[in-house]
Amino acid sequence: SPSFIDHGFISGTLQPPQGFHFLFSHPLSFYVSSSLELSIFIVQSADPFFLLAGPNVIESEEHIFTMAKHIKAISTRVGLPLVFKSSFDKANRTSSKSFRGPGLTEGLKILDKVKVAYDIPIVTDVHESSQCEEVGKVADIIQIPAFLCRQTDLLVAAAKTGKIINIKKGQFCAPSVMENSAEKVRLAGNPNVMVCERGTMFGYSKFVSIIFFYSSHS
């Protein structure tokens, strides 16, 4: 409903849209559709709390293994289910001179090695429809970048892999837009969809990711 989309998503006082469960993961928020089964745990409603964590981009095989080792050790110690995240390509870099990653083929090889070595599910993002099939052979969760959250062909291609789809809300989008993005995945035959809050732009370069919001004091 509009009241939920405009206020409840931030304040947490109202119920999520029909068919979704609410998960809060500081500093991001997730809607989870139905129950999602990963290789080592099942996400149903708001239980269990789980973590998507890892390097923003694959810098090297040695670096990724070091990070996976330490993050897995910490998550195991505190009893927090982990989905390991890293990108094989950061296609949306501001500058063409910025490091983007090892690319699809080499990146997926590294992520697959990490998945096997540390027995952890993997999440990574796609930027083109043509990448989805290959990524789906390795990733347990396919992530749609915020800038691409409305791209129908990409959402449908990702959905057709049958993997869990995590759609990051574009900073330029109202939360209500994400209901349509999630619906595109479901209509493609995949009910396994999460929607991730990614913050909102308030003018040029003014990015705000709201953690707590009291509407009576705004």
Approximate shape: globular
CATH superfamily, called what?
Aldolase class I
Q: How many helices in DSSP terms? A: 6
Count structural domains.
1
Summarize model confidence as the mean pLDDT: 80
Radius of gyration: 17 Å
Distance between the termini: 21 Å
Give a description of the structure.
There is one protein chain. The strands form 3 sheets. This protein has an 8-stranded mixed beta sheet with strand order 1-2-10-9-8-7-6-5. Strands 3-4 form a two-stranded antiparallel sheet. A two-stranded antiparallel sheet has the order 11-12. By secondary structure, the protein is of the alpha/beta class. It has a single domain (2-217), classed as Aldolase class I (TIM Barrel). It is built from 6 helices and 12 strands. The longest helix is centred in the N-terminal third of the chain and has 18 residues, at 61-78. Helices cover 31% and strands 21% of the residues. Belongs to the KdsA family. This is 3-deoxy-8-phosphooctulonate synthase.
